[in-house]
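Dissemination and training. As part of the outreach component of the grant, students in the summer workshop were shown how a complex can be specified as a set of sequence lines and then modelled as a single object. The example used during the hands-on session is reproduced here so that future cohorts can follow it. Participants entered these lines:
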Amino acid sequence: MTGLIQVRGGRTVAKAVDRPWLLRAASIALVLGLWEWGGTIPVSIAFPKFSETLAAFAGMITDGTFAGAYAETAGPLIVGVSLTAVGGVLAGLVMGLSSRTEWLGLPVFIVLQASPSAAIIPLITFIYGIGFTAKVFAVVLLSAPVIVLNSYRGIANTPRSLLEMGDAFLAGRFKRIVKIVIPAGSGLIFAGLRLGLAQGFTGAVLAELLITPTGVGDLITFYRSVADYPRMFASILSIILVASVSVTLLQRLEQRLFRPEMRPA
Amino acid sequence: MTNRTSPTSEPTVPGGVRNPGDPAVRVVDLAKVFAGGVRALDGVTFDIPRGELTSIIGPSGCGKTTTLKIIAGLLDATSGQVEINGTPVTRPGPDRAFVFQDFALMPWATVLRNAAFGLELRGVPRKEREATAREYVAKVGLSRFEDAYPHQLSGGMRQRVGLARALAVDAEILLMDEPFASVDEQIRRKFQEDLLRLLSEEDKTVIFVTHSIEEAVYVSDQIVIMTRGPSQVSKVVRPGVDHSGGSGHIRRSPAYLDWVERIWAELQGYLET
Ligand SMILES: Nc1ncnc2c1ncn2[C@@H]1O[C@H](COP(=O)(O)OP(=O)(O)OP(=O)(O)O)[C@@H](O)[C@H]1O
Ligand SMILES: [Mg+2]
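and obtained this result:
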């Protein structure tokens, strides 16, 4: 098999498959290269080159623009995501453990997940005004369905044989949930939390774009209005970076807490 | 018949004074119809003498696992009942430990924690339960793998973790569902020896499901032969193979081969109908 690859002169390809990070780096380099190239054509006057964006990004770090903006965005985001994480996992647990609440709660979250949230967010302002509460609510609205539904799936699908084992070795109700049901479901629960966190970012930024301009959302709006496109793109890039870093950290936490066998050696 | 000595004095149990001659487990006219109408058992009756090893043998799907789970209190019978020391079974209890056909190990826990899990659920302090579990993990030959996770083990090794977990809770009755199904023939024979030795060291009543006639004859004091559809007990036999002569000697002895042949004929009769 490797012989075939070598005949085609694909030696480096064979090596890259052995080392996934090489492929990952190559894919990132490709995207950034295309971006740089797209900026030189240019695709649009509002589309800066990657190098310009990077310079703007560095500038915004050093002059404290990001620090100020994220301090503002973090408030509703942290409060909202913490609320949904606790409430959502609890709701998922309860729904996964009792069929009555399952029928009561499940349809609500399925509908919520399927609905176009950006359209609902302006409605929040009618109920909660334009302050902090409204933004927290936007975060909750976007992150709750995926957290609840994943927690529910994780809990409801505990392997039967493990439950039976717990019964055979006399697990009480509480120990059965804490020592078997939750660890068995932790994969799906944490997948939900990761997606929920990503959704929470979307909610926070959407709220800042649609309700009142503050934080990172305000950066985007402001730099667009003054046509400073490198800084506008740098702001967007920062959201992607911050979101992926927090999601990765959450994944580490999960492996540490519940699934030591999945930790990379 | 049995080559293990029965204890002479028995503690008293709820439900009356226990006589050494009483069976540990009585299965009385057990029937099980699963939701959906599958008749898994149809009037199964047999006794399991205390301190002995009883095998249950029969074709796939005849209800061996179902019988074992009803004895364990994991499944409810549709009718009939199981008595343990004279008391009807309604739920799992500390007097019984189960070795599962599909291992039922927690993938997120190490071998040691899996083996100690029965004790963990009973609230035994960590140091104490790990010491006990370590002892049994060693007895099943997995000392080197204490910190491994189930996915790093072969099927046979996983099964041995399940065995260590059941032994660690020190239950009087051991329910084993095809414990040696996923090991090769050489290891299997070693396990059979280990099991016999273990049972001579610890006074336990064992119910052992197997597909192998040779295995059943070799390890059992008593064999319950089950038939398929509707599932009933076709025969209870006591081969009583004399273990004093060593393994190779027994497996060539006429008495052993004769029993294997007789049970084979018994099962075959039901395969043809
Ligand atoms: N939960 C269940 N629901 C419905 N039918 C079941 C269930 N469990 C077992 N059965 C049926 O009951 C019958 C007996 O099953 P059981 O698992 O006791 O057989 P077994 O003798 O252990 O077979 P094997 O040797 O293959 O392990 C089978 O026909 C099976 O399909
Ligand atoms: Mg079975």
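Chain A is about 85% helix and 0% strand. Students were then asked to discuss how this feature might be tested experimentally.
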